[in-house]
Amino acid sequence: MKYHNPVLLFESVDGLQINPSGTYVDVTFGGGGHSREILSRLNSEGRLFAFDQDADALQNTINDDRFVLIHENFRFIQRFLRLYGVKKVDGILADLGVSSHQFDEVDRGFSTRFDADLDMRMSQKGELSAYEVVNKYEEEKLADVLFQYGELRNSRVLAKAIVLARGEESVKTSFQLKQVLQKFLPKAKEHKILAQIFQAIRIEVNQEMEVLKEFLLQTSELLETGGRLSVISYHSLEDRLVKRYLQNGLFDGEPEKDFYGNIKVPFKKAGKLIVPTQEEIKHNNRARSAKLRIGIKN
Tell me, which fold does domain 9-100+209-297 have in CATH? Predict the structure, then answer.
C-alpha cells in the first residue's frame, strides 16, 4: 500500500536522542516510516509502541518483537499504554495531519482534487462525517467551524451559501460542495481557499484540536524527566498549540509564578524550530508547511 514519505524523518527521530534500551511511542504510525527509523536505533531491550486509528495503517505493521501497534486514537495514549504495563516512556513522536495515503484514497473524501462522498473521517469508526457537518450544522455553528479552523474571514457568507444550497438538496460530494461555493473561489486563489474549507471541515469531523490538546497534556505525565517530545505540525493552529504548550504548559494565557517570580513549566525547548530543506520540499511537496518542535521534560 502506497504511503507518504515521512517528513523530517531524521530530524524528528534525532530530536528524541534515542536511548537504545529505552521505551518510545510513535503516535501517528501511518506508513511506519518514523517507527522503522526509531526501531533501527533500539537494541534488543528497547521497545516501541505505535498508535493509529486508521484501519488502513494496520496493513503496514512491523513484524518485530520490540514493536506493538495499537489501533486507537492517540488521545487515549495513557490508557492504552497502561494495558501494556507502561507508565513512563523516554520519548514520544507525533507527525500530525493527514497522510498522503488518506489524501490519495478517493473514497475517503479528504482531497479537493477528486469527487467523493463527503466523509473525511480518519477513523472509519467515527460517527461524525463531513456530510453531517455540511448538511446538519446550524448556520452559525458552520460559520464558526470555517472561521476557527479554516481561518476564513468570509466564513459567514460561505456558511449562508451552504445552508441555502442544502435547502434545495443535500450536498453529498466534494464536487457538489465546490460547486455551491464556486462564486467565492477566485481563480487565482481557488485551490488555497478550497483547501482551507476542507481543512476546517476535516478538523471538526476528527476533533483534531481537542485530540491534540488531550494528547499534549498527557505527554508531561508520561515522559521521564529528560524525556523528549518531537512534534511535526502542518498548519498554524496545530503549531500554535504545540508552541504554547512547550513554552508555558498551557494553551491560553500565562503560567502562574511562585513567590519568587519563577514559573514551573513541564517542558523546556530543545533548540529552535526546524523546517524542511528546499531539497526535501522538492522531493516531497507535502513537506512544505511542516514545522518540527522538540521539548525536553523538566
Answer: Rossmann fold (3.40.50)
